[in-house]
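Bug #2210: token dump truncated for Transcriptional regulator?
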Amino acid sequence: MEINDLRYFIRAVELESISRAADALGITQPALSRQIRELENELKQPLLVRTGRGVQPTDAGRRFATEAARILEEVDALPRSLRSSNSSPTGVVSLAMPASIANGLLPRLYAVLGREFPGIHLKVSEAVSSTSAEWLRNRTVDLAIQYERADIGNLHADKLIDEPLCLISAPGRELTAAPCIDFATIEQIELILPSRDSGLRRMLEFDAARLGLKLHISVEIDSVSAMKNLVAAGLGHTILPQFSVLAEVAAGLMVAKMIGAPRLTRGLVIARLAHRTPSLAMLTVIQAIRDVMDQYVFGPR
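Reproduced locally. Full output below:
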């Protein structure tokens, strides 16, 4: 059960309509119906009764909506309470994340924590998602930023962002002056990509095949830093998440063009052990990560 499940259910109860709730939430009606159905299956009882005019909560649905609203109030109040609390959070928090995220996130994350929460000592390790999942299970780390995947076992994962994928080129070698580039255009160039063991590579090849396209890969290399070095030297182009090249783009060393038509993204989640209650310091780090990612991926709000 996710926080969004609670939000979606409450919206349906408030509006007494699946279709109106779906419109208000910006999702499709079948998607909302499916999520409510999965929620009912998880709780093993019906929560809504379908009527000719919309939906009404059952007795269990009313009780669930009341408790869900209380939980959401506490969740929504958390950022404010963290910033206004007289008792500043302290302690060590260990965090794992992919190397592709670390370069863009860490300077900004450490700056925020050092300025607003100096009592938190953040320890960071780089790891692919499968490794960080094992580290969470054996308590080597407290938290892990991972790429979204279906099978997470006994972990609890909250969505952070859908991170845009970009075509990365050396200055002067970009294929267009526009900020975005069609995926079909990428079929025409030689790419520097990781091997098929990489989730990014598998995702790109799946999307290309779905669109009837073929990627032309000139170099396979399982190192984000090495891929960027080759691109910076003008030896080809690569595709990476936006966060992984923030520093290089800001310094004028690389050019990033967001891939559109269709827009390609990779979902990022923050994961922890499902049965472990997070400390105030852990919750503070999670919120700081959200704030940094929102600002630099979506811009100031």
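Output looks complete on our side. The first helix runs from residue 3 to 15. Marking as cannot-reproduce; reopen if the truncation happens again.
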